[in-house]
Amino acid sequence: MREIGHFIGGKEVKGTSGRFGDVFNPNTGEVQAKVAFASRGEVEQAIASAEAAQPAWAATNPQRRARVMMKFLDLVQREFDELAALLSSEHGKTIADSRGDIQRGLEVVEFACGIPHLLKGEFSESAGPGIDLYSMRQPLGVTAGITPFNFPAMIPMWKFAPAIACGNSFVLKPSERDPSVPMRIAQLLIEAGLPAGVLNVVNGDKEAVDTLLTDPRVRAVGFVGSSSIAEYIYATGCAHGKRVQCFGGAKNHMIVMPDADMDQAVDALIGAGYGSAGERCMAVSVAVPVGRKTADILVDKLIPRVESLKIGPSTDAQADYGPMVTRAQLEKVKSYVDLGVKEGAKLAVDGRGFKLQGYENGYFMGGCLFDEVTPSMRIYKEEIFGPVLSVVRAKDYEEALRLPSEHEYGNGVAIFTRDGDTARDFTSRVNVGMVGVNFAIPVPLSYYTFGGWKRSGFGDLNQHGPDAVRFYTKTKTVTARWPSGTKEGAEFVIPTMR
Ligand code: NAD
After folding, report:
1. Is 246 among the catalytic positions?
2. Is the confidence at residue 488, as pLDDT, over 90?
3. What is the mean pLDDT of residues 133-137?
4. CATH class of 252-437
5. How far is the CA of 478 from the centre of ligand 1 (A)?
6. How many angstroms is it from 144 CA to the middle of ligand 1?
7. Sequence ranges of the domains in the chain
8. In Å, how far are 58, 141, 171, 227, 338 from 166, measured between CA atoms?
């Protein structure tokens, strides 16, 4: 059985804790590898390696740091097919979707290539007599990232690329469910010229995470995952004096106005609701048609589309989506569908019994569609994270606007309409972090920032874009007087620029 260890000090090392987790092939249900779970001591070794490497890396000029990122981009292009296949084999998403996962990560690496420009400080000449005032951004030291299973290439890159480009070193704790791509990425970075120890990968569970959260050498922690763990990471990291940003779960609504192009809206709901088996934090899980007529048309058009979704193994180029990541995830999603039926929602399409011939032990699930879901139901309040779309009928625009605004999650939201006034009012008033207009999955591009509101995001700064540079650096401000010989005598009052 293949064993996945850790990546410490520039090379792969075996796990020594004696604890392992199973890495499944979600297409077949077979265990395909064992991943080592790091002990406190092993994580401390990774932190020590990161601490030793960081000063020289910070002293390397930003253009040279950027060149490592540029070379890394080339190497990933060389291995794109292999990486996508590896990713799909552990996650279960289709190869095309895995390519998108890698690509959206690379776009943040491309952004990080601009680090010489992004790190430029401010300068005010002659802010006072002979006095220049300026600010500079300096790295924090050792930083860490804890990432989820659903984007095993993209989210690690969103974390380490800006952190490293800013001159930090980094310890990554990827998801134990699909750890192989992060391990391969670490090797590629060494090939790209990253000095050993600047990026370390420790695999594992809570023990590894808790070590990163409590070790005083780690200065900042970035997390992406479910909201309950995000809250824990945020509270624990902050209590240990670290800078922390955590991105959590979601319940993304898509409002369909009566004037929307209904075919476009249905296409959008099918792709954003069921793509990647709904295992995306920006998946649309709630459709909100406005007015009874809109709802009836929408549901009538959705039913045959959900019934005809093509579900296949992740290697099937014709499949719309593949299996869920683990049996536990599959069972959890099915139990939410059972719950919705008990709560009185109308199950218009039931995909619970779906079986794929030749893959009977895989974690496949057919698409489910609920109609007449109400805000008091748990299937509306909680994140399901599977191929399940709920229709909540709103009587008018104001009710549709209130639903996402009052929901405890606030990651993404979309409105489909042909009316510019409505779209503008919606984007201004909705209480959600990322908004799409006739665009179902509004993940901002790498040079803007990504982040949800309410229980979808904890901390002050978003990830990637300019906020990433702010998060991974501290600002130093210098007041300098030249020529140095100016003599004003001792001043006992606070200096002011008179
Ligand atoms: P998860 O919370 O189970 O795990 C995330 C990470 O935390 C993993 O590395 C895991 O090993 C670690 N972890 C799990 N339990 C822990 C514990 N008790 N103590 C310390 N660490 C622990 O999330 P997941 O199932 O891997 O990912 C799916 C979730 O991530 C969904 O809720 C999804 O919405 C969310 N997500 C959010 C975003 C975003 O940007 N907001 C992006 C992607 C995924």
Report:
1. no
2. no
3. 97
4. alpha beta
5. 40
6. 15
7. 2-248+456-478, 252-437
8. 8, 10, 15, 28, 48
Rg of the Cα atoms in the chain: 25
Same fold, 2-248+456-478 and 252-437: no
Tokens of 58: 């910070």
292, 393 in Cβ contact below 8 A? yes
Q: Decide: helix, strand or coil at residue 106.
A: helix
Mutate to test the pocket of ligand 1, among 6, 154, 209, 213 (most ligand atoms within 8 A of CB): 209
The H or E element spanning position 122 is none
User: Which residue's C-alpha comes closest to atom 9 of ligand 1?
Assistant: 175
Given the residues 113, 166, 246, 281, select the one marked as catalytic: 281
- 495 has pLDDT over 90: no
Ligand 1 contacts CB of residue 236 (under 6 A): no
Helix crossing, 95-112 with 62-78: angle to 10°? Answer: 160
Distance CA 2, CA 65 (A): 34
Amino acid (one-letter) located at 454:
K
The response to whether residue 343 sits with its C-beta less than 6 Å from ligand 1 reads no
Any residues with CB less than 8 A from the CB of 66 and at least 6 apart, and which? 112, 113, 114, 115, 116, 165
Task: Say what the pLDDT of residue 204 is.
Answer: 98
Atom of ligand 1 at shortest range from CA of 457: 41
**Is 363 in contact with 326 (CB distance < 8 Å)?**
yes
User: Is residue 225 lining ligand 1, measured as CB closer than 6 Å?
Assistant: yes
CA 151, 246, 214, 35: dihedral to nearest 10 degrees? -10
Distance 147 CA to ligand 1 centre (A): 6
Residue 193 Cα to ligand 1 midpoint, Å, equals 31
Q: For residue 378, which amino acid is it? A: R
Q: How far is the CA of 297 from the centre of ligand 1 (A)?
A: 36
Q: Which atom of ligand 1 is nearest to the CA of 148?
A: 26
Q: Which tens digit of pLDDT belongs to each residue from 309-328?
A: 999 999 999 999 999 999 99
Confirm or reject: Cβ of 176 under 6 Å from ligand 1.
Answer: yes
How far is the C-alpha of 463 from the C-alpha of 298, rounded, in Å?
35
Strand arrangement, sheet containing 473-481:
123-128, 131-139, 473-481
| Architecture category of domain 2-248+456-478 in CATH | 3-Layer(aba) Sandwich (3.40)
How, if at all, do strands 199-201 and 169-173 pair? parallel
**Counting atoms of ligand 1 from 1, which one is nearest the CA of 411?**
41
Alpha-carbon gap, residue 35 to 359, rounded angstroms: 24
pLDDT in tens, 78-93: 999 999 999 999 999 9
- Cα 353 to Cα 357: distance, rounded to the nearest angstrom: 13
Closest to 216 in 3D by CA, of 34, 397, 9, 44: 44
The residue nearest atom 19 of ligand 1, judged by CA position, is 206
